[in-house]
Amino acid sequence: MHISMIGLDPIGGTPRLTFGYEYLAGSVNLIPVLIGLFAISEILNKVHLIDLDYQIIKNYLLKK
Question: What is the pTM of this model?
Answer without folding.
Answer: 0.52
